[in-house]
Design a protein that fits this description.
Layout lengths: L2 H6 L11 E4 L10 E5 L2 E5 L5 E5 L5 E10 L11 E3 L8 H8 L3 E8 L6 E4 L8 E3 L4 E3 L15 H7 L19 E2 L4 E4 L4 E4 L12 H22 L2 E4 L4 H9 L7 E6 L4 H17 L3 E4 L6 H10 L7 H5 L1 H5 L5 E5 L23 H7 L6 H13 L5 H21 L7 E5 L4 H8 L3 H6 L2 H9 L15 H19 L1 H10 L7
Parallel strand pairs: 4-6, 14-15, 14-17, 15-16, 17-18
Antiparallel strand pairs: 1-3, 1-10, 2-3, 4-5, 5-7, 7-8, 8-12, 9-10, 9-11, 12-13
Helix pairs in contact: 4-13, 4-15, 5-15, 10-11, 16-17
């Protein structure tokens, strides 16, 4: 079952694009990777992963910021830069975290030469990281942590989750390996005692007073982050028929002629609606748009896709479109639409209220994971410590820490051929604002529509995730036929797709 070992014989570490390993004792750089040393710590990284040295007083090296951080001034930091940390940020945890989370984007911070050495992730864990305490290693994926007697594969749990043939997830820091743990968003890894510690939120979040102010602030941050990427790299924006990607397009209005929109024809009805709607929008406004034609993934590409993430999460649609995305030109930034579900209580059920009891079984079920004792124990522990005022906040933080940190942040490593992917909504302030919107407003799902109305109202002329014009009759007929076929042929997957609001992938 040793997926990593099995595939390592076929695929070398040069294919682990944009990945890294941080070691506390010796240099673990794979062949062809870049390496750096600060004190007794070694950083090894694939050449396509940027690294910025963090310095303190007297230009003393303190650590690294990896990935694609965007400053408060709206600049994407570049590989090889040195960044001087503010006075007090090394001694004060509050000042340190204010400094780190003034940045948005996709990044990780390793502060190694300090009184309290730590690793932090970006606000939604989109530059995901795992660690092995007894080997004193931090890495992007479990593939980069050597096997030993204590870190073998979790064979039974892996079989039960059945990745890559399901959309299953490993819950709350679990990985396919024993003693290899994933760092969750809102937590840091203490490099002194190799414990994961929550740093945000430390108490239940209150409800904001001004929805209009939140809309304006979210739009301003997203516009700033998009502008930072577009000014630094040729940029793709993944446009579907959904409201999240259209909100990104609205926030990119002043830069839309510098973007290339891409939409994938995966082969299901949902993708057909995506392509039709995106094509209409692009034509109306004269925007550059590329449809990725349906192409079945090769066996080699499927293996490589999962090898890059060490079989750490399921993502059927992404996995099956692996070859299509490899056809795109290289060297681009890719703007993705994740995170926006936080604004509309994605994991709230219709009958959920603030007094609903959220059980460990429910959390494990959300992950498409069997209710075995190990996942349930993780869920119980998390529920006992999560700082939430009510059940709805519990589900919100679970979405942030589980779905973003243990799913979305993981598969980004697999879709790296065109360039780096980044979630334009990945910013602590954006997340805080979305989580503190009034409950009734969030249930209405209006945030994205209101941002679009503010920034580019004409984009609201097309419905979200519904066919347009005469094509509606055709799509409705096909949907009725194919939903029945999916339910009969793949009942488990049909329920999963219905939960995620999609129509399903047709084989």
């Amino acid at each position: 079952m040793d997926h990593g070992l099995q595939l390592m014989s076929v695929l070398d570490s040069s294919r682990l694009i944009g990945q890294f390993v941080l070691a506390a004792a010796d240099n673990r750089a794979p062949a062809g990777w870049l390496s750096d040393r600060i004190g007794g710590w070694f950083l090894a990284r694939h050449p396509r992963l940027p690294a910025i040295r963090l310095t303190g007083a007297g230009n003393r090296a303190l650590g690294w910021m990896l990935g694609y951080p965007i400053s408060e001034e709206g600049r994407l930091l570049s590989d090889g830069e040195a960044l001087c940390m503010p006075v007090g940020a090394v001694e004060s945890t509050a000042a340190l975290e204010a400094f780190i989370y003034g940045f948005g984007g996709r990044f990780a911070v390793a502060l190694v030469e300090a009184q309290h050495p730590r690793v932090y992730l970006d606000p939604c864990g989109s530059l995901s990281a795992v660690y092995c305490a007894h080997q004193r290693l931090v890495a992007s994926t479990p593939n980069l942590i050597p096997y030993d007697d204590h870190s073998r594969d979790r064979v039974e749990l892996a079989r039960a989750i059945a990745i890559p043939h399901t959309n299953g997830q490993y819950p709350l820091g679990l990985t396919p390996r024993y003693r290899v743990e994933r760092i969750l968003p809102n937590h840091f890894l203490d490099l002194s005692d190799w414990r994961m510690v929550r740093h945000w939120p430390t108490q239940p979040l209150g409800e904001m007073e001004s929805v209009e102010g939140a809309i304006a602030e979210i739009a301003a941050i997203v516009k700033r982050q998009i502008a930072a990427i577009v000014s630094a790299k040729p940029t793709y924006l993944c446009l579907t028929a959904g409201q999240d990607s259209r909100m990104l397009l609205a926030c990119a209005r002043g830069l839309a002629d510098q973007l290339e929109l891409i939409t994938a024809e995966i082969g299901d009805l949902g993708a057909a609606i995506d392509c039709d709607t995106a094509r209409r929008i692009a034509k109306r406004f004269g925007l550059k748009h590329r449809i990725l034609p349906k192409e079945s993934a090769t066996e080699e590409d499927l293996q490589e896709w999962m090898f890059r993430i060490s079989f750490s999460t399921g993502e059927i649609r992404g996995w099956q479109s692996a070859t299509m995305f490899k056809r795109l030109p290289r060297g681009r930034g890719v703007l993705g639409e994740a995170v926006g579900e936080l604004a509309r209580g994605y994991w709230w059920r219709v009958d959920d209220s603030e007094t609903t009891v959220v059980s460990p079984e429910r959390l494990v079920e959300i992950c498409k994971c069997p209710p075995d004792e190990v996942p349930l124990a993780r869920a119980r522990s998390w529920l006992a410590t999560v700082p939430a005022a009510n059940a709805l906040q519990v589900l919100d933080l679970y979405y942030l820490e589980q779905d973003l940190g243990c799913w979305a942040g993981v598969w980004l490593y697999s879709e790296c051929e065109p360039g780096f992917q980044l979630f334009a909504l990945s910013h602590r302030r954006v997340i805080e604002l979305m989580l503190t919107l009034p409950i009734a407003y969030r249930r209405s799902g209006r945030l994205q529509r209101d941002v679009i109305a503010r920034e580019w109202a004409e984009l609201l002329e097309w419905p979200f995730n519904h066919p347009v014009g005469l094509s509606r009759l055709v799509f409705r007929a096909k949907r009725a036929i194919n939903k029945g076929a999916i339910a009969l042929r793949y009942p488990g997957l049909a329920l999963d797709w219905l939960h995620r609001g999609t129509i399903g992938w047709l084989q």
